Every structure is written in structure tokens, then in C-alpha cells.
Amino acid sequence: MFSIERPEDWWEVEALYDLCFAPGREALSSYRLRDGVAPVRDLCLVARDDTAAVGGAIRYWPVRVGKAGVLLLGPVAVHPTRQGEGLGALLIQESLERAADLGHARIMLVGDAPYYRRFGFRRLDGVVMPPPTNPERVLGLALRKNAWAGVKGQVQRASDLAQ
Ligand SMILES: CC(C)(COP(=O)(O)OP(=O)(O)OC[C@H]1O[C@@H](n2cnc3c(N)ncnc32)[C@H](O)[C@@H]1OP(=O)(O)O)[C@@H](O)C(=O)NCCC(=O)NCCS
């Protein structure tokens, strides 16, 4: 059902994100953390239905908080004709399991706590996204025990030197 996103899937997934998010999504501060950085290939998943159309997709990028490596979940989106069937949950759960299997310790995202709470995401105190970001929407999940303990500060691009 899911396959790792291939280079030839890129524009189809971009079209899905354009459809699902408000215009100007790339102006969001989370995109500044992705600029010029390659996504985490093994965790970028595409769900295709029987007609081979893309029903949903999820991507991850590496970021840094202080000296700690963190995975930034997103964007994740499900085609409007497929929403509410559990596909979003499946994409998130499958990618979280793969991330744990690959040895990643911690994940963060900017999103709606009422949706992401079910996967174990909680508000991250002291982890600061580039402005403008509502701190209530900065959420994290530990894939290893206490993985967020002591991890605080500005979220930075993975390729920027830790300051
Ligand atoms: C958010 C999204 C990925 C969820 O995918 P999905 O396949 O529709 O979700 P699921 O079927 O797994 O879950 C549906 C449940 O989540 C709830 N839900 C969906 N979006 C929600 C939100 N923003 N806040 C709270 N609950 C939400 C639905 O009400 C539904 O609740 P129920 O199980 O009680 O009926 C999808 O709706 C989407 O693409 N939305 C537009 C893009 C977007 O907002 N992406 C997330 C960015 S933070």
C-alpha cells in the first residue's frame, strides 16, 4: 500500500500538498528548515490506490535542536476524496515505526495537537521554531525513553552549523 517516494513521484506529491494546504504553504516557517536540505528518503511514503492515483503522502526532514538531531514530520496530507478513512493515521504510524526501526530518537512537527495527540505527540516546551509559529502547535514524540530530556532551543536547519 505504501512505497518509499521515488524522484519521479515528487511533483505528484507536490500537487497533492498544493491541493490540501492553503495557498502559500511554502511561506510557512517550517519550509525554511527544509530549504536546500534533502528529505529523509526512507521515511517519505506515498500511498497509491487501485487506480495508481496518490491518495496520501508524508515526508520528513532532518533538523537540529541545539546539538540534537531531530526528525521534522511533514508535510502529511490525504486527498480530500480519501480523508477520514484512516489513511493519514496509517501513513503516520507506518513512518513512525520505520523511524524507530532506523534508530531515530525523536520527532517533532508543527500541527494540530487534537489530531496528533493520538499518536503520542505532546507540546514541546522550550523548542522554538522560526517565527511566526504558534508555540501551542510545536509538538514532539520520543521514540526512545527520555529522548527529549534536555533538548531545548531554536530549531535549525540540519545543514546549519549548531550555534
Ligand atoms: C490531517 C490529515 C492528514 C488527516 O488524514 P485523514 O486520513 O483524513 O485522517 P484519519 O482518517 O487518519 O483521521 C480522521 C480523524 O482525524 C480528525 N482530524 C483530521 N484533521 C484534524 C485536525 N486538524 N484536528 C483535529 N482532528 C482532525 C478527523 O476529525 C477524524 O476524527 P474521527 O476519527 O474522530 O472521526 C488530512 O485530513 C489532510 O490531508 N488534511 C489537510 C492537510 C493537513 O492539514 N495536513 C496536516 C498538517 S498539520
From TrEMBL:
Record keyword Transcription regulation present: no
Domain N-acetyltransferase: 1-144
GO molecular function: acyltransferase activity, transferring groups other than amino-acyl groups
Flavoprotein in keyword set: no
Keywords: Transferase
Top-level taxon of origin: Bacteria
SUPFAM superfamilies cross-referenced by the UniProt entry: Acyl-CoA N-acyltransferases (Nat) (SSF55729)
Coiled coil: none
Protein name per UniProt: N-acetyltransferase
Organism: Palleronia caenipelagi
